[in-house]
Amino acid sequence: MDGRAEDEGRVYQSQGDQHISEHHHHHHHAGAAEDSAGPDSVRRPLVSRAPVILRDRAEVLGRLRESVESRPGGEVHVLHGMGGCGKTAVAWAFFQYATAEAGRVGLWVNAANRASLRAGMLAVAADRGAGEGELLAARNGFRPAADLVWDHLDRSAEPWLLVLDNADDPTIFRDGQWLRTSPRGTVVVTTRRSAARWWPGAELQHIGVLPREDAARVLCDLAPESGTLEQAAEVADRLGRLPLALTLAGGFLAHQIIVPWTLDVYGRRLDEESPVELIDQGADPLADEDPRHLVGQTWQFALDSFESRGLPEATALLRLLARLAPQPLPLSLLNHREIDGALPRARVETALRVLLDHSLAELVDAEADVRCVQGHAVLLDSVAATTPPERVSALDTTAAALLDAAVPDIPDAGPYNPRLRLLAPHVLGMLRHVRDEAIAADLLALATRLATALYRTGDYLSAWETAQTAGDQAELTLGADHRLVLAARSRAGRALFRLGRYAEAHELLDRVHTSQKRLFGPDDPDTLDSAHGLQLVLGNLGRREEALALLRRTVAGREATLGPGHALTLRSRSSLLVLLSAAELAAPANAAVLTLPQDCARHLGPDHIVTLGARHNHAWATYLLGRYETADAGIASVLEEYRRRFGPDYPVALSAQQLRARTQAALGRLEAGVDLMADVVRRREVGLGTDHPFTRASRDLLDELRSGRWRPPEPPG
């Protein structure tokens, strides 16, 4: 298995915990079509390039291949070892064999953390036939996500291989029993955690550093003109024979053009720069040393080389990425002018190419094929630890500004947006390590705005997790009574309400509202925002009088503070159309509330979401007043607009459809009403779960319509 690079080619031995370049062209032809289009990302390994030569892994690959040849499924193989040993490279090679020669469907999931594991496994369920409604229910926590995934894996028509890559935190598998066996397929896990207690019933295989001769051959594969096999063996010893360190060293040597370095020079520089002492500690794969310390000096050595070669922007970009989370970061973020705070925007493309060429970052297609850049967690941790203290504040400010530019200033309602979900780990990751109060406050405000955006796309579970986690983290720096901490708690409470967790939502919103009144006054915008959310919960808990009194105070406060034409004022006034009884709606004192749709259109425009919501609530009010034809026409128009803008499963679209079922039945079109209501129940059971309060209420209404017990509301007077 000798490998040699010729002309402009480069051969890389290993991949996984490190980035692998198979071939590099110094001249990219303009307009050339990219070859990245292919199957869904779970059907191919989420690594940018494949290894050409895999050294010293024949024994373990032989055992893995035998397992899929002789048995249909039911096995879990755990590949464990220190970071950078090439566990993912072994899994990749096995994946190729299983899909190309063993007739298996290949499925690949990044299990680095709970969020990526959950998202990846739900994508696996979609690949195996799960419907969008089932996936929506699982995403929002109304259906056990792990059960959904494994039910579809167990019923798969084709045998499969599932790789759970980078599973370095085994505790995330216990929540929902994500790791299981199935007669229809084989599971391979790559992890640094080797204790058998984490992987009961699995076959464990240790992946260690390379033997001396194979490690030397890796360096010769990558930099064939740099020295002899024995010289390579000496440098490999200094690098601890760790595939990641070998790959970086060989890549560095291969790139020296004006003054080529030999292996001897590289070895002397390792001694001069004093990284060898740390790197040599990795020679024994059974040692307890942190692999971050073993390879950190090699990475720092590469960063120093960028400076000496006039490429400081590559170092700056990597340090910027190290301020964020080791998760896919949409490439579009790097194209904002705010990046000038870390490096010139005009040099970002060059800097990124340098990082990719030196195996310090990789390109991945994340959810919905959003193109992203991602750095390995160990690498980013090492870079963050060695970033000069005087640069940290500027880098944090720049990273926060980039994330801020990617989140809408005023989040609007809309369909699910995968880019928003991708931003959440980075915002929360920064909040975890930032201790500067000003930056923490800016990040918390951003996290709350991001949670609002997620909320308004119907992704209530992500909205709650983002707001709740952000509040918890920022409270350590800013304190529990900080205005922004309370605002994040309020947003978390609103999401809990939409998730059907009324008791928790009431407790949280009531506590936040009380604190805001004490600290900021009853007419403060934040206090009024929490009051609006709290009245929604009270109304759905059956406490109408309390809800109505609170809503009236909210309307009055918003009119005084924000003005009568403000969107939030009009939104609160719109809620009156739902809470008022028929008799109250008919009272002359409330006549103005029935003109609300026209008021919204005048102040906000006919297409504004608040105007659309006011038309929806107005249709409800006219239905209560017994004006069934008017109500039916009004809600039909609203329902059509909701479906066009958000899709038929969007929560408010189902609410409108439920009202349409009522108006149709009230007009004597009972069969049409039953059909509409049956569809609402089906979609809510799939999207919200059978026990969500909205689902139960819809099911009760359907039963009444079918049994003939339902009666339309009596007009007042």
Automatic annotation (TrEMBL):
This is Tetratricopeptide repeat protein. The lineage of its organism: Bacteria, Bacillati, Actinomycetota, Actinomycetes, Kitasatosporales. It holds the Pfam family TPR_12. Residues 1-10 have a biased composition (Basic and acidic residues). Residues 1-44 are annotated as: Disordered. It comes from Streptomyces millisiae.
